[in-house]
Amino acid sequence: MTQLTALGKSSPAPVVRRGPKRSRRAVALNLIAVVIGLAVWTLLAGVGVQGLPGPVEVAGKAAELLSDGTLPLDALASLRRVLLGFLLGTLLAVPIGFLMGWYATARGLLEPYVQFFRTIPPLAIIPLAIVLMGIGEVPKVFVIFLASFLSSVVATFQGVVDVDRTLINAARVLGASDRTIFLKVVVPASTPFILVGMRVGLGSAWGTLVAAELIAAQEGLGFRMQQAQLYYDLSTIFVGLIAIGVLGLLMDRLLLLAERRLTDWQERR
Amino acid sequence: MNAKISFRDVVKTYPMKDGTFTALDHVSLDIADREFVTVVGPSGCGKSTLMSMAAGLVEASAGETLVDGKPVTGPGPDRGVIFQQYALFPWLTVRKNVEFGLKLMELPAEERRRRAERAIELVGLSDFADALPKTLSGGMKQRCAIARAYAVNPQVLLMDEPFGALDALTRVQLQDQLLDTWSQDQRTVMFITHDVDEAVYLASRVIVMAARPGRIQRIIDVDLPYPRTEEMRLSPEFGRIRNEVWHAVYHQAPASSAA
Ligand SMILES: Nc1ncnc2c1ncn2[C@@H]1O[C@H](COP(=O)(O)OP(=O)(O)OP(=O)(O)O)[C@@H](O)[C@H]1O
Ligand SMILES: [Mg+2]
């Protein structure tokens, strides 16, 4: 009887999700992979690959750097640069990408620059940035900004260009003005592209970080690793690498979550 | 005749690598106010192109399209369009899709809600009003697109194979609903279909087009009274007209000059 009522009230749109069993299996496999990786690492360190510290040694170093406050301070400094550069880059990239996608004139004017600078690795800008901007925070943030700007701008632009013409026509025949079409059709339709661009942008922002911190930094994960390199301190280098990886992964997951939320309407194949 | 839509010597060509492709070759057609015409013809003969001109989405290469005697300069909410490819906004629920045009009319929220509700009910999607398009079947998407066009209550309905993706039963139901609303609201309807039965059942005139180059082959009057009934589908007169249309579509003489 209860079952009948439940059936009668069936909700219209059942959402298919992966069973918990399957994802638990995936997590288990992930964990196994990590354990195997650690084992191989230990083994390699054990058989004496030149100066390679084992996981335990690195963990000890991490604990030491954590307790004396170096690691949190470095991470904070790096995070601040990455976030600042990334946010500025994305904030500028989205409107410019929209402009380029929407107005042929803007596209004609901006595209050569975007395409040209995209072929230059952001790191190659560093010498120029130092000369022009000195050795403070500005050049570091600038280089990260440039890296994330360029990947986001291209994605946004592509998203706008790829908006389905029939959707625009559907809005037009319902009486939508250009402004409405832009806000109610083009923006939502290109959101998935923008979010993918942001993820790529975040990736390149992190990628640029270490090199940006080569520019006479006083703190930061990249700077710490540079220092460690001078003293042949492999453990600290490993701690830095892992910290960058973990932070990057966390930020990527956050963006992925936002992407899932905002673009849940997409038909995924 | 009091023409609501008239195509006057309309030509549409597309530039191609080797010369130009003629999608429509001097098409002239008057559709009377409150008339229901259907357009049939082989794939690629320019049915959608012709309709898009009335919608104001495609510009003619030569000739002109008039609505209410005025040249069409762009799309407008007086002409509702149902596209061959549903064209639902995938990020909006069924209800929000249907309300899209109503919002642009700046109706009060209450009125908007009521009209959307009515249109959704008409196409039988009430249980799915809050579902996203990705969770709907092809036929349901098409019904949602129909509701979206009905809701703004346009004087002219331009429908491009709107029932193409529907099963036979839903199709017949929606045909009867369409005729019902048409006879109540007295709109002008231009309806493209590849189903000869449907073309005859709905229309007072069937426009048969031919391809390469796209042109009007024949216009066949359907001398059956409205309201149309299911019995009429079985009548000898209906059968005769259907055969005539069928013949005109599928036994077309090749174009006089090579395309
Ligand atoms: N943008 C375009 N560029 C070049 N050719 C085009 C373009 N749009 C349409 N055509 C051509 O014009 C012709 C008519 O197209 P249209 O879409 O009007 O056909 P249709 O009669 O609606 O066909 P179907 O029944 O398959 O929907 C086709 O041969 C098509 O290839
Ligand atoms: Mg077509």
TrEMBL record, chain A:
Gene3D superfamilies tied to this protein: MetI-like
Residue intervals passing through the bilayer: 27-49, 82-104, 116-135, 141-161, 181-202, 230-251
Pfam families for the chain: BPD_transp_1
Domain ABC transmembrane type-1: 75-255
GO cellular component: plasma membrane
InterPro entries associated with the record: MetI-like, MetI-like_sf
UniProt keywords, alphabetically: Cell membrane, Membrane, Transmembrane, Transmembrane helix, Transport
Compartments, as annotated in UniProt: Cell membrane
Membrane topology, as annotated: Multi-pass membrane protein
Main localization category: membrane
GO biological process, one term: alkanesulfonate transmembrane transport
Similarity-based family: Belongs to the binding-protein-dependent transport system permease family.
Full protein name: NitT/TauT family transport system permease protein
UniProtKB/TrEMBL annotation, chain B:
GO molecular function: ATP binding; ATP hydrolysis activity
SUPFAM superfamilies given in the database record: P-loop containing nucleoside triphosphate hydrolases
Keywords, ordered alphabetically: ATP-binding, Nucleotide-binding, Transport
Top-level taxon of origin: Bacteria
Domain ABC transporter: 5-232
4Fe-4S found in the keyword field: no
Pfam families given in the database record: ABC_tran
Stored InterPro entries: AAA+_ATPase, ABC_transporter-like_ATP-bd, ABC_transporter_ATP-bind, P-loop_NTPase
SMART domains referenced in this protein's UniProt entry, alphabetically: AAA (SM00382)
Protein name in the entry: NitT/TauT family transport system ATP-binding protein
